[in-house]
């Protein structure tokens, strides 16, 4: 039954992943394997051939457009995705709205089967975790215009030991969005944005380059995808406020890097002004295209649980696009019948940069931006998040919660997680602290299926780990520091040190 649904769903889609009937990918009936394409054909060309050969006249044309975010049902304002527009006529945020009636022509089961059928392949562009959901992302883009590093499909890690030892939990998972092409979840959104820019340039729209303000990860993703497509990228970075690993990424990828003597919010203000004057396309998540890619991480989590819905998903928040992206991904899965409910979301902020937390604690009264203080979670050192309205909407719609983490809490949580075999970034430490607090208050139960979203690779933040394990952080006990032991190069000294360690070592 499921197989029948899968094949009938595929026949409705254009472009289709179906292979020509006379050309199976692998012939099992003989000893020889038949390659699905000849050596002189690349995977783009192959995708082109396959889609041409399987066009179905009944194909519904899925489509999407920009509309004002959370607009009244009577609003008729909308823009083509081929327009260069970031705000509505009243200055509000925009959202990408899909033709849900067209998408409903497939049942939830058919969508599930279609998405599942694309995982783990190299079929262009569906080998990407983002583009495997193309019909829900940018349905109308030509696959030839897509710029992809086969991002997504990231590991969902069962945090068995961390959950059991530190939280008394049996069903704790970490979605490693940072184990990715440029080392953060930003790849998910950037493949979409840069692909659309690629299309706009082919349509001769005035786009000479793509620009962003960044705390490190957005600029890394932007510069890599632009470099792959041969598009100039320009990045505004707050001077001395991002890690060395993040700074070197856009430099290495050939971006034009401006190191500006301000904070992220200052850079954001400048890039908005600049992109309204010059034909530079804005790549921050103010641009709602980005969130279309980022929302696929939510779909992916459901897929990885065989479409069972977790109870909680915890996301570290800064500029606040991602929390809305997760909400949107889950919501679409519910609206299109892939699942019957959505999880509760928790947004976790650093206490030194906590405007959303303060807003939540005030009972969602008037929002006030803050001056963000220094935090080891430097990528979320943001005081005036552009997506505040999106975040509030998402959290209110799913009975969500906002938590905060002090510097000591987030560094201790990171060290504890690392001691169980992870190597997480400080932002994930913020999310784990939120979980810790919600477990202590028993809001999250011991058997609740909980997913913590890990947003960047720990290797980008080794300096903070070095300072922690060297106990070099002023006013921080660094309780879980594990510094190396200096020992003389003789057998006796090494043996003494080892015996001492083995006498005291914890028994695992
Ligand atoms: C590593 C990391 N985690 C979390 C975030 C927060 O995401 P958002 O700005 O979408 O809230 C960012 C960027 O802001 C980030 O780079
Ligand atoms: N952490 C971000 C800050 C900018 O966020 P964006 O999602 O609006 O681009 C970064 O890495 O720059």
TrEMBL record:
Domain Tryptophan synthase beta chain-like PALP: 148-455
Names of the cofactor(s): pyridoxal 5'-phosphate
Name recorded for this polypeptide: threonine synthase
Catalytic reaction annotation: O-phospho-L-homoserine + H2O = L-threonine + phosphate
Keyword Amino-acid biosynthesis set for record: yes
Keywords: Allosteric enzyme, Amino-acid biosynthesis, Chloroplast, Lyase, Plastid, Pyridoxal phosphate, S-adenosyl-L-methionine, Threonine biosynthesis, Transit peptide
Region annotation (Disordered) ranges: 1-42
Organism: Kalanchoe fedtschenkoi
A Gene Ontology term for the protein's cellular component: chloroplast
SUPFAM superfamilies (UniProt xref): Tryptophan synthase beta subunit-like PLP-dependent enzymes
UniProt superkingdom: Eukaryota
């Amino acid at each position: 039954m499921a197989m029948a649904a899968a094949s009938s769903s595929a026949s409705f889609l254009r472009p289709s992943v179906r292979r020509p009937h006379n050309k199976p990918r692998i012939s099992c009936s003989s000893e020889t394997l038949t390659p699905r394409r000849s050596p002189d054909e690349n995977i783009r060309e192959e995708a082109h051939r396959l889609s041409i050969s399987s066009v179905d006249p009944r194909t519904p044309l899925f489509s999407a457009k920009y509309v004002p975010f959370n607009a009244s049902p009577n609003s008729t304002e909308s823009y083509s995705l081929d327009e260069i527009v970031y705000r509505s006529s009243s200055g509000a945020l925009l959202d990408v709205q899909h033709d849900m009636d067209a998408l409903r022509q497939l049942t939830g089961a058919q969508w599930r089967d279609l998405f599942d059928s694309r995982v783990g392949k190299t079929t262009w562009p569906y080998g990407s975790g983002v583009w495997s959901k193309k019909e829900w992302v940018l349905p109308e883009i030509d696959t030839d215009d897509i710029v992809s590093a086969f991002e997504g499909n990231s590991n969902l890690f069962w945090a068995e030991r961390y959950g059991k030892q530190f939280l008394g939990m049996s069903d704790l998972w970490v979605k490693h969005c940072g184990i990715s092409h440029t080392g953060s979840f930003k790849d998910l959104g950037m493949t979409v944005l840069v692909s659309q820019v690629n299309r706009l340039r082919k349509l001769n729209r005035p786009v000479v380059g793509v620009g962003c303000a960044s705390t490190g990860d957005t600029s890394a993703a932007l510069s890599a995808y632009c470099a792959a497509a041969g598009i100039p990228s320009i990045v505004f970075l707050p001077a001395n406020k991002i890690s060395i690993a993040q700074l070197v990424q856009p430099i290495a990828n050939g971006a034009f890097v401006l190191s500006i003597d301000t904070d992220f919010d200052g850079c954001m203000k400048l890039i908005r002004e600049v992109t309204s004057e010059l034909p530079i396309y804005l790549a921050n998540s103010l641009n709602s295209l980005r969130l279309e890619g980022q929302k696929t991480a939510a779909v992916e989590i459901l897929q990885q649980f065989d479409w069972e819905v977790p109870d909680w998903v915890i996301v570290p928040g800064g500029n606040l696009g991602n929390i809305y992206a997760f909400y949107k991904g889950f919501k679409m899965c519910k609206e299109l019948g892939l699942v019957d409910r959505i999880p509760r979301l928790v947004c976790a902020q650093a206490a030194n940069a906590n405007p959303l937390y303060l807003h939540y604690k005030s009972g969602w009264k008037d929002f006030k931006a803050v001056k963000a203080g220094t935090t080891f979670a430097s990528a979320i050192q943001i005081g005036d998040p552009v997506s505040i309205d999106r975040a509030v909407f998402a959290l209110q719609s799913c009975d969500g919660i906002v938590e905060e983490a002090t510097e000591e809490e987030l560094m201790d949580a990171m060290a504890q997680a690392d001691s169980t075999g992870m190597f997480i970034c400080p932002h994930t430490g913020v999310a784990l602290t939120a979980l810790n607090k919600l477990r202590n208050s028993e809001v999250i139960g011991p058997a609740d299926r909980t997913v913590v979203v890990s947003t960047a690779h720990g290797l980008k933040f080794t300096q903070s780990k070095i300072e922690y394990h060297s106990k070099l952080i002023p006013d921080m006990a660094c309780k879980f520091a594990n510094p190396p032991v200096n020992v003389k190069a003789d057998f006796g000294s090494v043996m003494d040190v080892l015996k001492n360690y083995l006498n005291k070592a914890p028994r695992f």
